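User: Sequence in, structure out. Go.
Assistant: Echoing your sequence, followed by the structure tokens.
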Amino acid sequence: MASPAEVIPIGQRLSRNLDELIERRERLLTDYQDAAYAARYRALVDRVRKAEQERTGTVQLAEAVARYYAKLLAYKDEYEVARLHADPKFVESIRDQFEGGHRLVFHLAPPLLARIDPATGEPRKMRFGPWMLTAMVWLAKLKGLRGTALDPFGHTEERRTERALIGEYEQAVEKLIGTLTRENLSLAVDIASLPEEIRGYGHIKARNIVEARKKRDELFARWSGAPGTATARAA
């Protein structure tokens, strides 16, 4: 109890307000893809914020969209995994944690290389040596291919689903702000926060996506009959 309090680096603490929340995710998305990608994020969040303040005087929905829209946009694909590992801070953190000599080994299931386990039906992880870190440095430089016709990873079902989720979320948010009222604000926040339930990777994430989409449809069924929604639509 008498020991000094641990100092939390500024980059690791929680955002203090909505503006900081948005700015931090803009930087993340710029590093993830580019400035245009971050601008796409900012445009929707600003539109939500403006509509919400005009209709309810709050920022609850804007905060949810700012957080979870960024989560969907920054899905962890091969380029992002490579970028994070290629960051010099990653190697520095390993050196700080282990004294003396150490050897990096990567256990990955590349979609174009991994074999399917006949017992589970899921891709088997493969073992790669330290040379994989150099490969990741080069792969990270190719992030501009993400989502394009030249993206060798973008044609898998998992990547197509992740891109579809972004479009579905954008459509859902537009529907929410179109009929937002004080009465249905809490329900709107619940709908906008659904990406929180999409966790994991591969088959685990796929199951969570199915459940999240099901819950989204159920909540929107309630949205159609929520108090104030019909009034807002008529207006």
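User: And one key feature?
Assistant: The two ends are 59 Å apart (CA to CA).
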